[in-house]
Amino acid sequence: MKSTTVDRHIGLLNLAKTLSFLVVFVAGVVVGMTASSQINRYFVSQAKLYFYSNMNNHFSAMQIPNPALRNCSSEANLTHGFSDNELFWRASMVPRRAEYPFKRVPKVAFMFLTRGPLPLMPLWERFFEGHRKYFSVYVHALPGFELNVSMHSAFYKRQIPSKVSWVEESANLGPGIDVLQWLRVMDRGCMSFQSVEWGTVALAEAERRLLANALLDFSNERFVLLSESCIPIYNFPIVYKYLINSDYSFVESYDDPSRYGRGRYSRNMLPNIKLYQWRKGSQWFELSRELAVNIVADTKYYTLFKKYCKPSCYPDEHYIQTFLNMFYGSLNANRSVTWVDWSMGGPHPATLGAANITEGFIQALRNNGTVCPYNSEKTSVCYLFARKFAPSALEPLLNLTSKMLQGVLGEILVQGKQPALSIMAAPGGF
């Protein structure tokens, strides 16, 4: 009996020990899990803190290639600081939605390629007067030249950043020499200068730079290239209607079998550009927005021209002309809207001065017997602009505008859709 009681006490003692052990074990597990949770939370929070801290430091240290890419008001800000690569990349963007999220009036971009001053600017000011919402102006001049005009001028703050300068090579070059005849291109890589003549790739690059800057404004629908020696030969409403309502661009592009055409072709352009695709034409173009974007976005074919269209091959007479012929011929009218006088012969057109400017002369420019296609119709209005005019032509041209270039010109034949702007000129303007 006594032995049984002792055994029972021993059993209860062992059970108590076991229960105590289990309690301690469970308590340890609970404490351990709680501690582990706190530790994990601590280290996770520290890791997050470290991660976000480093991410913030990383983004703070990141150098955005050009902050202007995030915020560009194209109409007001032409001093955007873009490199050419950034500029062409931005200008190549095309919205995929047809509608615009803002009120938009289609505009014509007038792009002036000049060495510096614009001696015929007062004539253009009169041409633009009263039509501010329907046009944009862009001026590409030599580095170092600053266009200084009144804040009320259509040219105010319309000079784009340029990488190319054009200068007279000697004191013998008179005022009749314009942007096409002598150029000086800056080698940006080593800051040296390379002398080049009229028609080199420097001119084609300046044209593309003008196009790219004008494309930054989504309201620009048509793009016309002009020089400091160009004049308009119709009033603004006629020019606007003619261009905005056109189904085609106006780039002269033809096959010239002579040494001045096919003779400038380089077989190094094979297989991408073949001889039968090679074209020549006037550098004074007018483009739709669609074609302007495609030209600025092109790197493949333009690179070939930069590399192989030299020294006697002039890219400004061949690149756009060949490119459009290869891919967009059906969208091109194959003619220029800028009249040039080649009757004197030689490598450069005639320069016209004060003695040439008469009422009959301007009428002859308009009604020269030429008939050309305009959309699906025929018209005698084939030219909207003319060149080359010397500074001395300014005064007689201004004297003619009040009598010649106002409202009565509205009866010319221009077929197509109804214009957004009346064909009649505003009083006091062209």
TrEMBL record:
Pfam families found in the cross-reference section: Branch
User: Is Secreted set as a keyword in this record?
Assistant: no
A GO term for molecular function: glycosyltransferase activity
Taxonomic superkingdom = Eukaryota
Q: Name one GO cellular component term.
A: membrane
Q: Where in the cell?
A: Membrane
- Membrane: is it a keyword of this entry? yes
The membrane spanning regions, by residue number, are 12-35
Q: Alphabetically list the UniProt keywords.
A: Glycoprotein, Glycosyltransferase, Membrane, Transferase, Transmembrane, Transmembrane helix
Membrane topology term reads:
Single-pass type II membrane protein
Among InterPro entries, the record links this protein to: BC10-like, Glyco_trans_14
- PANTHER family assigned: CORE-2/I-BRANCHING BETA-1,6-N-ACETYLGLUCOSAMINYLTRANSFERASE FAMILY PROTEIN-RELATED, OS08G0110400 PROTEIN
User: What is the recorded name of this protein?
Assistant: Glycosyltransferase BC10
Q: Name its species.
A: Vitis vinifera (Grape)
